[in-house]
């Protein structure tokens, strides 16, 4: 929206509308405002040159009409209002369809993520039972302009065009549709429905429509290619020839006429006359499916560049199908995308692979340059950025990744100059467009949304100390008497957090692959230690006071899945389990492997330890061989095998019941099993869940040994382990409950459950009463509760901390 000075009349109208909003003790009672006001006052505020003040009113952001607010965000001017606009955009694709109090919670969390400290108090009610304390911001960006919501399944492609003078984008999805969007308004212009399977690719044909107008070509998973009128959504023609999914498409000019070029899983690329859909030629030199496609001008001779899943890239003449150049070992694995950039007027081909590699190729000169990229990157698409000035002394490109981010990169150094973060799943495709004179990107994601981004080469790449991959596990502990936590991630690192301030105290680097689990040993009066389990087949021991790597535990031959810690004869020890089907007992002071636990016939994914007073310390391991096994940690001896599960055992917890060591196990069944570890007796089976039990934890509630189970049936349940009685049914989630953590906080036994419904819920385990519900922009991946009641959780790449829940009702 362009900014023009507000007229006296416009200002008068706005003030009159503002006075019609009922007053409240600390502002305006927007919840009681007339619906007309909620729908239209944002536009009046923009016309009156007063939008900044309105955007800084948290209650208005909660109750105002979402689409109306989104439309005026470009009119924000001052830094606080621009930050408020970024907060509103961050999760718009989720909160626009929610009730106001649910929207409040998401806006509050996004204000914490974006450090909108002045806005946050206006979004969190003083009486709120649960609220964000702080959050990282690895999946937010102030460059986000809008989120396009409408597809019902993951998106696969995006292309940009100008339609009747307006910047427009076309997105394709697995929901068998393509949608045309007006990028200035975010509104759908037309929808293409006609594919019998998911739509995998899209291209714009500049002269392929009626009367020389542009047309849009879409390629389907069933091998069909359809050509559409983007203005009306009418199907113009069907192109038949491919025998498998059409994964890439583009347009070119050959001999003065517009042609369409398509490629796919049938290992062929095909050239079509855009005007009538007639096939012109087929290129058949590839030995594997084709994912990458672009057009390269070579001395006036149009050529296609195609990249295959076998890592090869070929350049061929679009008029004759003659192979001009080829690079057989271009990438080690699949070539995902290709684009043409220019350096000193010379066209070069930039390619990216799913293995994280990127290359710059000058085919006529035979020069292939490998570009430096970050660890763990998995590229999905690339686009040239001709509208941007030179970056790092050379051409720039926009790359997208499986981690849900896009990045502006200088192709001379490979350095990231702008990071676009906000998608909650991998990005499938990207297109670049001019939007009101500004270079702009449109990304299509597997999260079902497309997003519009401002591209600014001078935008700082901020590092707020957060993770750059999915947060896999979290453990809470005390550091110098203050609550702290350690998180581990798919980005190969761990991080230590001050839960009060949100400061990242240490980054734990050393693992060479994703880190899957963390356990903390926090003995009184001693240095807290963390043991991290990695997919690199190692576990690592860390001093959490300094962040120092103390030692690396070698021995597993495949990824380590879980770790548990205890004092073994007064010495810090750990038990690790892994995909190699073994467990290992370690002395953490020396790094020596004390025992190897062998017996499982498949991978072992969970372990719990128990040190009953006056008895032998035990470990219980859970395996995909449908058994749990009990081990003497002093000798490494297998004491007994717990048979009874009919599928993989995926959850285990242990505690003492009536003086006897006891374990609770669960898996892909509807029951949890309670075992006496002394003799291996199945004491009882906990019936109640109507679908698989996904997680279990144990604690003592009012002197009674208690278990909390989480299930795919959308419930959690509280059990008395001495009797097997179900004490409480914790009902409220609307999808599978995926994780549970429990701790007694200030005398109140508390559990926190997370679900696939994008909520976290806190419960009083003594009564079963809900303590609070928090609606989130994404699903939580892991959760822990600190001794002071702070909840710390992973959400995608983010770490979030919530204030201790209070008994104030359930706001959701």
Automatic annotation (TrEMBL):
One of the record's GO cellular component terms: cytoplasm
InterPro entries: Quino_amine_DH_bsu (IPR011044), Quinoprot_gluc/sorb_DH_b-prop (IPR011041), Quinoprotein_ADH-like_sf (IPR011047), WD40/YVTN_repeat-like_dom_sf (IPR015943), WD40_PAC1 (IPR020472), WD40_repeat_CS (IPR019775), WD40_rpt (IPR001680)
Name of the protein this chain belongs to: WD40 repeat domain-containing protein
Per-repeat ranges for WD: 170-191, 192-238, 239-282, 283-326, 420-463, 508-552, 597-641, 686-729, 730-773
Alphabetized PANTHER family for the sequence: F-BOX_WD REPEAT-CONTAINING PROTEIN 7 (PTHR19849:SF1), PHOSPHOLIPASE A-2-ACTIVATING PROTEIN (PTHR19849)
Record keywords, A-Z: Repeat, WD repeat
Alphabetized GO MF terms: ubiquitin binding
BP terms from Gene Ontology: proteasome-mediated ubiquitin-dependent protein catabolic process; ubiquitin recycling
Gene3D superfamilies recorded: YVTN repeat-like/Quinoprotein amine dehydrogenase (2.130.10.10)
Keyword Disulfide bond: no
Pfam families for this protein: WD40
Xref: SMART domains: WD40 (SM00320)
CDD domains in alphabetical order: WD40
């Amino acid at each position: 929206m362009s900014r023009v000075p507000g007229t006296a009349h416009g200002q008068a109208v706005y003030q009159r509308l503002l006075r019609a909003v009922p007053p409240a003790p600390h502002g305006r009672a927007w919840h009681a405002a007339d619906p007309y006001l909620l729908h239209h006052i944002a536009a009046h505020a923009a016309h009156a040159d007063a939008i900044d003040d309105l955007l800084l009113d948290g209650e208005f952001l909660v109750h105002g009409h979402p689409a109306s607010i989104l439309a005026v965000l470009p009119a924000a001017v001052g830094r606080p209002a621009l930050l408020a606009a970024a907060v509103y955009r961050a999760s718009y694709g989720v909160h626009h369809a929610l009730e106001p109090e649910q929207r409040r919670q998401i806006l509050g969390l996004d204000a914490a993520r974006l450090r909108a400290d002045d806005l946050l108090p206006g979004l969190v009610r003083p009486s709120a039972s649960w609220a964000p304390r702080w959050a990282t911001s690895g999946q937010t960006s102030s460059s986000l302009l809008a989120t396009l919501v409408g597809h019902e399944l993951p998106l696969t492609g995006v292309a940009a065009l100008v339609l009747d003078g307006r910047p427009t984008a076309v997105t394709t999805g697995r929901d068998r549709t393509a949608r045309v969007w007006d990028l200035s308004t975010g509104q759908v212009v037309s929808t293409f429905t006609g594919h019998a399977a998911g739509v995998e690719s899209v291209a714009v044909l500049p002269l392929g429509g009626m009367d020389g107008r542009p047309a849009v070509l879409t390629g389907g998973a069933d091998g069909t290619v359809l050509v559409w009128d983007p203005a009306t959504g009418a199907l113009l023609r069907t192109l038949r020839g491919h025998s498998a999914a059409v994964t890439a498409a583009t347009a070119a000019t050959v001999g003065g006429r517009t042609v369409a070029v398509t490629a796919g899983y049938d290992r062929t690329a095909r050239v079509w006359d855009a005007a009538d859909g007639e096939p012109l030629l087929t290129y058949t030199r590839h030995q594997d499916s084709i994912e990458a496609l672009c057009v390269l001008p070579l001395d006036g001779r149009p050529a296609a560049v195609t990249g295959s899943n076998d890592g090869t890239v070929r350049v061929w003449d679009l008029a004759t199908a003659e192979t001009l150049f080829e690079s057989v070992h271009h990438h080690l694995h699949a070539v995902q995308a290709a684009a043409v950039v220019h350096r000193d007027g010379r066209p070069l081909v930039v390619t990216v692979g799913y293995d994280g590699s990127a290359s710059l190729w000058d085919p006529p000169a035979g020069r292939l340059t490998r570009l430096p990229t970050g660890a763990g990157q998995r590229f999905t698409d690339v686009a040239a950025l001709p509208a941007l000035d030179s970056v790092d002394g050379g051409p720039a490109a926009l790359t997208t990744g499986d981690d849900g981010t896009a990045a502006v990169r200088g192709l001379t150094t490979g350095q990231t100059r702008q990071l676009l973060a906000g998608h909650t799943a991998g990005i499938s495709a990207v297109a670049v467009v001019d939007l009101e004179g500004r270079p702009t990107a449109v990304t299509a994601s597997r999260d079902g949304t497309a997003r519009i981004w401002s591209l600014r080469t001078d935008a700082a790449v901020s590092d707020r100390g957060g993770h750059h991959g999915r947060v896999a596990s979290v453990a809470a502990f005390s550091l110098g008497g203050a609550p702290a936590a350690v998180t581990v991630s798919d980005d190969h690192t761990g991080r230590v957090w001050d839960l009060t301030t949100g400061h990242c105290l240490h980054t734990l680097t050393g693992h060479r692959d994703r880190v899957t689990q963390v356990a903390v040993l926090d003995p009184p009066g001693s240095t807290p230690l963390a043991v991290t389990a990695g997919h690199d087949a190692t576990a690592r021991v860390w001093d959490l006071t300094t962040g120092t790597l103390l030692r690396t535990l070698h021995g597993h031959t495949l990824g380590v899945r879980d770790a548990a810690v205890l004092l073994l004869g007064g010495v810090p020890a750990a038990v690790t389990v892994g995909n190699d089907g073994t467990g290992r007992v370690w002395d953490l002071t020396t790094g020596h492997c004390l025992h190897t636990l062998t017996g499982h016939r498949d991978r072992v994914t969970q372990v719990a330890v128990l040190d009953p007073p006056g008895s032998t310390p035990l470990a219980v391991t859970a395996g995909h061989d449908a058994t749990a096994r009990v081990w003497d940690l002093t000798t490494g001896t297998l004491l007994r095998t717990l048979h009874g599960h009919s599928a993989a055992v995926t959850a285990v917890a242990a505690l003492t019941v009536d003086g006897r060591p006891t374990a609770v196990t669960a898996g892909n069944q509807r029951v949890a099993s309670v075992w006496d570890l002394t003799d291996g007796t199945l004491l009882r089976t906990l019936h109640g869940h109507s679908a698989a039990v996904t997680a279990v934890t144990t604690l003592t509630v009012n002197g009674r040994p208690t278990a909390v189970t989480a299930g795919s049936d959308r419930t959690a349940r509280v059990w008395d382990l001495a009797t097997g009685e179900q004490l409480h049914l914790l009902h409220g989630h609307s999808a599978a409950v995926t994780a549970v953590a429990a701790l007694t906080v200030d005398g109140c036994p508390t559990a926190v459950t997370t679900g696939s419904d994008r909520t976290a819920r806190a419960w009083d385990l003594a009564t079963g009463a809900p303590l609070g519900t928090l609606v989130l922009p994404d699903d939580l991946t892991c959760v822990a509760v600190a001794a002071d009641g702070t909840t710390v959780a992973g959400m995608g790449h983010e770490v979030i901390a919530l204030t201790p829940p209070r008994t104030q009702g359930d706001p959701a």
